From TrEMBL:
<dbReference type="Pfam" id="PF01855">
    <property type="entry name" value="POR_N"/>
</dbReference>
<dbReference type="InterPro" id="IPR029061">
    <property type="entry name" value="THDP-binding"/>
</dbReference>
<dbReference type="InterPro" id="IPR009014">
    <property type="entry name" value="Transketo_C/PFOR_II"/>
</dbReference>
<dbReference type="InterPro" id="IPR002869">
    <property type="entry name" value="Pyrv_flavodox_OxRed_cen"/>
</dbReference>
<dbReference type="GO" id="GO:0006979">
    <property type="term" value="P:response to oxidative stress"/>
</dbReference>
<dbReference type="InterPro" id="IPR050722">
    <property type="entry name" value="Pyruvate:ferred/Flavod_OxRd"/>
</dbReference>
<feature type="domain" description="Pyruvate/ketoisovalerate oxidoreductase catalytic">
    <location>
        <begin position="14"/>
        <end position="186"/>
    </location>
</feature>
<dbReference type="Pfam" id="PF01558">
    <property type="entry name" value="POR"/>
</dbReference>
<keyword id="KW-0560">Oxidoreductase</keyword>
<dbReference type="InterPro" id="IPR022367">
    <property type="entry name" value="2-oxoacid/accept_OxRdtase_asu"/>
</dbReference>
<dbReference type="GO" id="GO:0016903">
    <property type="term" value="F:oxidoreductase activity, acting on the aldehyde or oxo group of donors"/>
</dbReference>
<dbReference type="InterPro" id="IPR019752">
    <property type="entry name" value="Pyrv/ketoisovalerate_OxRed_cat"/>
</dbReference>
<feature type="domain" description="Pyruvate flavodoxin/ferredoxin oxidoreductase pyrimidine binding">
    <location>
        <begin position="219"/>
        <end position="451"/>
    </location>
</feature>
<dbReference type="InterPro" id="IPR002880">
    <property type="entry name" value="Pyrv_Fd/Flavodoxin_OxRdtase_N"/>
</dbReference>
<protein>
    <submittedName>
        <fullName>2-oxoglutarate ferredoxin oxidoreductase alpha subunit</fullName>
    </submittedName>
</protein>
Length: 585
């Protein structure tokens, strides 16, 4: 059978090298120009406990999501892999460890659960790993060798990647891992006839791999990030780790604080002192930051808070994905507390979007909450990022010499934005607190002053719309079925639209990195052109749908997916087909 797209899943327990398997396969594919997307799922427990899996989808054409189903399951741990058989496509395959035959009860044997519509292939994974390394380590490389032969992939693409991954560990480690790979390859070559082939176009340029977390950090540094304060939390910790490594190279700082409250407080202090600063967290941390976000609103100090969403509430599901933090991002503050909320849909938008976030936060002196999620933040994918490096950019509204003579920090202006200075400007003295205040910054509790200052703070959001990107409208502009989505679900929506189109149903999608504020006319015109509107999202309440209903008066078909896995394109396509059938009745 010939393939132009394959999805493979490695499944085992922590310590089996599952995540590194995905990285090696992804790197090998990217190096020869194949599009790749990798999604790792692991437990929140310590090493040696809990199930771990890495799903790798690679294709000759661009990928937008993890798709539906898998072509091959590699069962590194039989018991943990059994449930994943349900995800195998008809005529798909399983590679199971035949070394353990007779060692486990039948109900825990992967081979015993293989159904007639899928193919099983025994591979003595543990035995061959011991032959290569003297231990059970290297099982993942044995399986990778088998995969290489199974799909007629060039062995050199894997061996080069193995050498690169293990280069820091020395030639000895490279040698035994390469041996493990070759033993798996030769075993499959000897025992199973070659009947699969992945079609590779020769001469393709190598592709770049990155994750959303990496793209966010690079984008921030490239546009002037100089100070990062944070507290470790899954799945945002990688952002702090990269910042800690890279910022000192450009005379920047990374501080690990005692908690998330201190982290966002330090970020406000850095912005107040004239430095571009950022923090990153997940849902529980964002909850703790609410009070200091309010401080950012009232004191009109910029702030960038990246929130890599995970399942909630409370500690919830630390290693699973969900889009449940939209409401707290939009409304999580005391009083009338406006803030910018953004949500990138892919790694390219993580890079360009965080730069826009910095420019908006600084120019309009407002907090920006940048909503990524676990799937987008941690997935590895091939990308084409257009670098924009300007590490000295500044969008701050500076006072004129005349304004400095009688400096009014909160001067009333048409656009709601007052001149902002760095402390130490000669002659410019003002107060700053979390209390309501007059134009000088001195506390003031009068009704007319509060009304004036509240209107000023909200007026910024009317002014900033001109600086925001227009919404994108994708698909068939004549379609009567429209879809509105946000964040990482956009990829699944796009692939769901393709599935529906093959069934003869046209659709169109409106997407914007901006959640608040938005170019509202674009949305109103889009919704007015649709007879049916679908809003899919990864939460139980339909938080984005509720926002759109209140803002635009629409009555959409809502798809609520309180997820632990990325959204299924097929599920989106099925809802599109249902909407099409309703229109035909």
């Amino acid at each position: 059978m010939k393939y132009t797209e394959i999805t493979i899943r490695f499944c085992g327990i922590a310590g089996d090298g599952i995540v590194s398997s995905g990285k090696i396969l992804a790197g090998a594919c990217a190096n020869i120009g194949i599009h790749v997307m990798v999604n790792d799922i692991y437990s929140a427990e310590i090493r040696g406990l809990g199930k771990s899996s890495s799903t790798i989808r690679f294709s000759t054409s661009k990928l937008y999501s993890m798709g539906d189903g898998i072509d091959l399951l590699v069962g590194m741990a039989a018991k943990e892999s059994i449930v994943d058989i349900r995800d195998i496509k008809p005529e798909g395959s399983v590679i199971y460890d035949s070394s353990t035959h007779g060692d486990v009860a039948e109900e825990e044997s992967l081979a015993a659960h293989i159904t007639p519509e899928i193919h099983g292939y025994g591979l003595p994974i543990k035995k061959l790993a011991n032959e290569a390394t003297g231990t059970s380590r290297g099982k993942n490389l044995v399986a990778m060798g088998a995969i290489c032969y199974f799909y007629s992939l060039p062995p050199d693409m894997f061996i080069d990647q193995i050498k690169g991954v293990f280069a820091h560990k020395g030639e000895g480690i490279i040698e035994i891992n390469t041996k493990a790979f070759r033993l798996g390859y030769e075993y499959f070559k000897e025992h199973y006839p070659l009947n699969n082939q992945f079609e590779i176009n020769k001469g393709l340029e190598p592709k770049t791999l990155t994750s959303g977390n990496e793209a966010i950090t690079k984008g921030a540094i490239d546009c002037g990030l100089r100070f990062f304060a944070g507290y470790p939390i899954t799945p945002a910790t990688k952002i702090m780790e990269i910042a800690a490594k890279e910022l000192p190279k450009i005379d920047g700082w990374t501080l690990q604080m005692e908690d998330e409250i201190a982290a966002v407080g330090a970020v406000l202090g850095a912005w107040f002192a004239g430095r571009r600063a950022m923090t990153a967290t997940a849902g529980p941390g964002l909850s703790l930051m609410s009070e200091m976000i309010n401080m950012s609103v009232m004191a009109e100090i910029p702030a960038i808070i990246v929130n890599v969403q995970r399942g909630g509430p409370a500690t919830g599901l630390p290693t699973k994905v969900e889009q449940g933090d939209l409401n707290i991002a939009l409304y999580g503050g005391a009083g009338d507390s406006p803030r910018v909320v953004m949500a990138p849909s892919n790694s390219e938008e993580c890079y360009s979007g965080i730069q826009l976030a910095f420019d908006i936060a600084e120019k309009y002196q407002t907090p920006v909450i940048f909503l990524s999620d676990l799937f987008l933040g941690q997935r590895i994918e091939t990308v084409n990022i257009q670098e924009n490096i300007d590490r000295h950019r500044c969008t701050r509204k500076k006072p004129t010499s005349e304004q400095l003579e009688n400096f009014l920090r909160y001067q009333i202006t048409d656009d709601g934005v007052s001149p902002l200075i760095v402390p130490g400007e000669p002659g410019a003295v003002y107060s700053i607190t979390g209390l309501e205040h007059s134009v000088t910054g001195n506390p003031n509790y009068e009704s007319d002053v509060h009304s004036m200052m509240t209107a000023k703070r909200f007026r910024k959001f009317e002014s900033m719309v001109a600086d925001l990107p227009q919404a994108d409208i994708l698909g068939d502009e004549t379609a009567e079925i429209g879809i509105a989505g946000w964040g990482s679900t956009i990829g699944a929506i796009l692939e769901g639209m393709k599935i529906a189109k093959k069934q003869g149903v046209k659709t169109k999608l409106i997407k914007s990195i901006m959640i608040h504020p938005q170019h509202e006319d674009s949305f109103r015109n889009f919704f007015a052109s649709c007879k049916k509107i679908i809003v899919p999202e990864m939460n139980y309440q339909g938080q984005y749908a509720a926002l759109l209903k209140s803002r635009y008066g629409i009555k959409p078909i809502e798809i609520h997916i309180p997820s632990v896995d990325p959204v299924s394109p097929l599920k989106i396509a099925q809802k599109i087909m249902e909407a099409s059938n309703e229109l035909s009745e």
